[in-house]
Amino acid sequence: MSEEKTDQYMKPHGVEGIQVIESMNEEHQEISEFAFECVDFNENANILDIGCGGGVNIEKFLKATKGNVDGLDYSDVSVRESIKRNQDSVDSGRCNVIQANVANMPIEDESYDLATAFSTIFFWPDLGESFKEVFRILKPNGQFMMANGIDGTNPADEELADNIEGINLHTPDELEEYLLEAGFKSVEMFKKDNTFISVIIAKK
Length: 204
Ligand SMILES: C[S@@+](CC[C@H](N)C(=O)[O-])C[C@H]1O[C@@H](n2cnc3c(N)ncnc32)[C@H](O)[C@@H]1O
Fold this sequence. Notes:
CATH architecture: 3-Layer(aba) Sandwich
Bound molecules: S-adenosylmethionine
């Protein structure tokens, strides 16, 4: 185990957390672009981005729907950065960024049409229970979309796991099993050619 493991990806904090968020905003662009190609949603969809980090995907969804786009993250730095980035929509009431753990979201049942998770599920506690919590806050026929740049099948993933605190790698097949157990009716998988970028869409 390396002594240099960083916990900044699991939960950004302090000044270094702000820097890590800025770099993720850039580095995760390709994942985000592919995810937007894969997911379909209604023009009035209400969306929740879980583990929203710097709020870049909140910003994109605000342009893509007329509905509300909220963010949720347990890091105070992520919440602050997401609000800063989307300040106009926060002020106008179209965006609310909540500080909470995905395992226990202070959100009513059946609130959202789409929940998204970009490069964050590796850090979630008890994936099965967390997926059930996402299922709970989705409306009937709602969807849950996950976009990841690592899928546990790349030999290089192990090195990442040695350097990043709290990361748990799951293959797409394992994720599908957890999703079906959580109650989702169907699971669709997309893989970007010649990359390890994957998008999984589960329907309620
Ligand atoms: C690697 S960053 C990804 C940020 C952003 N989604 C992106 O694509 O750039 C992971 C984010 O998920 C958040 N996160 C991790 N585990 C969480 C949990 N259990 N509940 C809420 N947020 C969590 C972290 O605080 C961090 O902001």
